[in-house]
Amino acid sequence: MAQHRDQPFDADGAQGAYGGQNAGGETGSPPSASPAPGTPAESPAESPVSGAELRSAPRFALLIRAAKLIVDGREYLCILRDASATGVKIRLFTPIPKHSRLAIELGNGDRHDARLVWTTHDHAGLQFLEEVDVQRLINERGGAHPRRQVRLRVVLDAVLHAGGESTHVRFHDISQQGACIECEKWLAMNELVRLDTGVMPSLYAKVRWRDHPRYGLVFEQTFKLDELARISAPLQLSQALTEAARQSGQAPGAPPQTGRGRDTPLL
Q1: Mean pLDDT value across the chain
Q2: pLDDT reported for residue 134
C-alpha cells in the first residue's frame, strides 16, 4: 500500500485554552534602536568582561521572540529580548546547566554558536562566536525553512488512545501547538486521539499529517510558551543525566565508583 504524507501544519496564529505564543502575558514593541549593551541594567558589574566589544554594535529591542537555546545538543525554550550583531539577551525559563557548547536557534532554522557572558535567575547575555546579520535575526527571513513555531526535540514516551485501543508511542518533537510522534498503529487523517505522558495533563489532538509510522498532531488546546518550557526542561535535564551515566558505565542515580569495592581481591 502506497504511503503518503500530507502537508505538515504550521498554525502560528492558532489560539487555545492554554493561550498563544506570549510567555506569561508579556508584550513587546517593534524593533527600535536601544542603548542597552546587553548587560543587565540592574547588575552591570556581574559581567566578567569589560563589555567594550559587546557595546561596539547597536542594539535593537525585539518583539518577544521565541527561540531555542541549545546546550550540548539539548534544546530549551527561551525568549530573545534584544540583540546586536555580536550578542543577544535572552529570558530563561530554567537555569543554564554546566556545558561545553551553546547555540541559539531561531524559528527559521538559523543557528548561531555563542558563549555565556553573564546570567541572572531568569535572563542571560550571550556573545556570538561570529557576527550575525542582525536584521535577518530580527526578521527571521531565509533560513532552512520558513519561520514557524519553535519545535523542541524531546525523548518522551506516551500511551495513545484512539478507536477504543491503546498503544505505545514516542514523541520526536513538540511545540506549543502540536507534536510529531512515532506510532505503530495506523491512524486516520483528522482522527481525534488522547495522549497520556505522565508528565503533563492528558493531551487531545487531531492527526494533521502522516508518513507511517510518523504522524503530525495538532493539539486541541495549545500551550503557553512558559508552560511548555517548564514541562520540557526537566525532560532534557533527565535525558542528559541518563546519557552521562550511560557513558560512565553507571546506572542513573547510582553512587559514583570511588575505589576498590569490598569484594575486590587484593592484587
Answers
A1: 76
A2: 86
First to last CA, the chain: 64
pLDDT at 159: 97
Q: Residue 213, preceding bond cis, omega within 30 degrees? A: yes
Domains of the chain: 32-139 (2.40.10.220), 152-219 (2.40.10.220)
Q: How far is CA 130 from the centre of its chain?
A: 22
pLDDT digits (tens, 9 = 90+) for 164-218: 999 999 999 999 999 999 999 999 999 999 999 998 899 999 999 999 999 999 9
The total of other beta-carbon atoms located within 10 Å of residue 59's CB is 23
112-115: list long-range contacts, CB under 8 Å, 24+ apart.
112/137, 114/87, 114/88
Kind and range of the H or E run holding 138: helix 134-139
Whose cell is 502560528? That residue is 12
CB 148 within 8 A of CB 107: yes
User: Can you tell me which residue has the cell 542603548?
Assistant: 35
Burial 217-239 (b: 16+ CB within 10 A, else e): bbbeebbbbbbbbebbbebbbee
Distances (CA, A) of 126 to 55, 86, 89, 173, 202: 13, 9, 6, 25, 36
The HSE-up count of residue 189 (CA atoms within 13 Å, CB side) is 10
For residues 167 and 93, give the distance between their C-alpha atoms in angstroms, rounded to a whole number: 32
CA neighbor of 200 nearest in space, from 170, 223, 177, 167: 223
